[in-house]
Amino acid sequence: MPIADVKSYLAAAAGLFRVRADNPDLTRAQFDAFSKQIPLLYFILISNTIAVAYTYVPLAPAWLTMIVPSVLSVLAGLRTFWWLRQRHLVRSDADILRNLRATNWLTLPIAAGFTAWSFALYPYGDPFAKSQVAFYMAVTVIGCIFSLMHLRSAALIVTLVVDVPYVLFFFATGEPTRKAIAVNNLLVSGAMVTVLFIYYRDFADLVASRKSLLAQQAATQALSDENFRLANLDSLTELPNRRRFFAELATAFGDAERRNIRLAVGIIDLDGFKPINDNYGHTVGDRVLIEAGRRIREVCEGFGPHRVEFARLGGDEFGLVVCGDPDDEDLARLGERIGDHVKLPYQLDTAHTGLSCSIGFAQFPRSATSAEALYECADYALYHAKRHARGRTVIFSSELEAEIRSRGVIENLLRTSDFGAEMDLVFQPIVDAMSERTAGFEVLARWHSPRLGLVSPADFIPAAERIGLIRPLTQALLVRALATAKTWSDDIRLSFNLSAHDICSSDGILPLISIIEKSGVPPRRIDFEITETAVTFDFVRAQQSIAALKAMGCGISLDDFGTGYSSLSHVHRLPLDKIKVDRSFVADVNDNPISHKIIKSLTGLCDDMEIACVVEGVETRAQLDSLRRLGCDFIQGYYFAKPMPADAIADYLAAEDQRLDDAKRAARGAA
């Protein structure tokens, strides 16, 4: 055999008798298992030693039967006590390795001591006593090997130190029975060593598997923690998101309820954000949201003794949970600080722009007795702020609570109303600006509630949207409107308003298409009016619905253009036939140069895009003349007629024909 192979073999063999230092996890596992079994090893050793010594008391000298076994048993007892203490100590990897190596070194003299004592005692015994020594050594070494199986090196040392002298000693006696015992012990020890190697390998694999499993569990936990963080974090602003906000609200509400202290919820909406998004693009809009969120968070973090949880709820809306018993003055001061910081200019490349924000607060326990109701109250306070105090802070009050109750009454009565009996339709003419002849009628709904009387569309239409009745209401009114339009001459169109829920619902506008097909009214005579708010509710689905109506032959009008945050991108991306200019620009068109220029720009836009321009709210002849000069195509307003019931349309059209005929005769006479 080559020298190198011999060295390699000897190194491998020597490695069996060493405690490995390259695998701390295995070493720690060995130490934990070994420390639990070592007391059993010493118990076997001490009890068997006492039994043999007792047998030899009348046969051997006292120093062999009393002193030596006592010394060996005391040493074994001390080691047992030492190991029992280790089970409750937290040790470093270095300490564990040092203790296992020390155990390896101590195994050799302890095993040699007990073996030498056994051989010294053997000659004094009779055949039965000698057999007990042979049995003592064989059984004890097997018990020791089992107890030491987690520390392979120590088990091998015991096997060699005890079994090799044992076999040689009993072979040297020359007695066949003793030789047979020696051979039998040798075979059993070999089998034990084989089992030891297999067990040690499986034990090492188990430790490695456990380490791998723990690593996987740690990775899974880390991934779970990261997923939890991401699930509760807004990806754009890196603020807590809506999910986290409501979790914090639930926790804070429970604490406030338990401690009987005040808690407030606030909702912030950025005023003027949509024009930034439309004019500068979503990238700039995202930067504004991030900066606005940062400013609000700074205010919240530095707000006196009160802890304020801040989150982005979605879009340009943010939420606050104000803990620490805040009063109305605290909330007003917080709202003012947030408003002042949000109003500061935003640097957008080379341009500057500004925002404001409306804030609604609601306070527990004054406003609500549950977390959900508290949030709803804050949301209504925000709604009131945006309608009546834009850019300011509104705290939910008893007056707003009365409004909510009134709104609730409308919603409840609307749920039980008979649309056919209680809803009336009125029609307002849409007149050609040049010929002054009616081109169509816009249909408007009126609700005559048996309990409330006449309810404004501004109240019952939003209520129908909130409670999910707007679609059946729209369908019922469209059926009646088309039935009326069927009685008109073929050149008069019907203009009908659709809400966001009508054009953005999950099942699309199929019910409306079915109603049109069953009505007998040609789709080319129908114009559907939509607001930009409805379009932005879900632009993609709205675009699909509008395209379907357009494919049927219906006309599409964009209503209330010029108010709110109108976007030219919607005009460009939708198949529009008309744009309706809001009445707010008409009232002072002859006195306000700004209104005059706005209408002029809009009529120019419509002319360039080859779509008609309809102007609402015309009440005087002077306004009509100005709008005609500006190029408006159609006029709608009280100058021609107020909304009228269906049975008044025939008389109106007859009067119009008479008026136009009189005007023609007068013109011919003047000529």
Task: Note down, in words, how this protein is organized.
By secondary structure, the chain is an alpha/beta fold. The chain is 62% helix and 14% strand. It has 24 helices and 17 strands. An eight-stranded mixed β-barrel has the order 8-9-11-12-13-14-15-16, surrounded by four helices. A five-stranded mixed sheet has the order 2-3-1-6-7, sandwiched between helices. Strands 4-5 form a two-stranded antiparallel sheet. α12 links the parallel β6 and β7. Residues 3-18 have low confidence and may be disordered.
Instruction: Report the end-to-end length measured between terminal Cα atoms.
Output: 136 Å
Q: Helix share of residues?
A: 55-70%
Largest sheet: 8 strands, mixed, barrel
Q: Structural class, please? A: alpha/beta
Mean pLDDT: 81
Summarize the structure.
It contains 24 helices and 17 strands. It is α/β, with parallel strands linked by helices.
How would you summarize the topology of this molecule?
Layout (H helix, E strand, L loop, with lengths): L2 H13 L8 H33 L5 H25 L6 H29 L5 H21 L4 H21 L3 H56 L10 H18 L3 E9 L1 H8 L1 H20 L6 E7 L2 E6 L5 H16 L2 E3 L2 E3 L2 E9 L6 H18 L4 E3 L2 H18 L3 H4 E10 L5 E12 L3 E3 L1 H10 L3 H16 L7 E5 L2 H4 L6 H10 L6 E6 H6 L1 H14 L2 E7 L6 H6 L4 E4 L11 H17 L2 E5 L4 H9 L4 E3 L7 E2 L3 H22 L1
Parallel strand pairs: 6-7, 9-11, 11-12, 12-13, 13-14, 14-15, 15-16
Antiparallel strand pairs: 1-3, 1-6, 2-3, 4-5, 8-9, 8-16, 8-17, 9-10
Helix pairs in contact: 2-3, 2-4, 2-5, 3-4, 4-6, 5-6, 5-7, 6-7, 9-10, 10-11, 13-15, 16-18
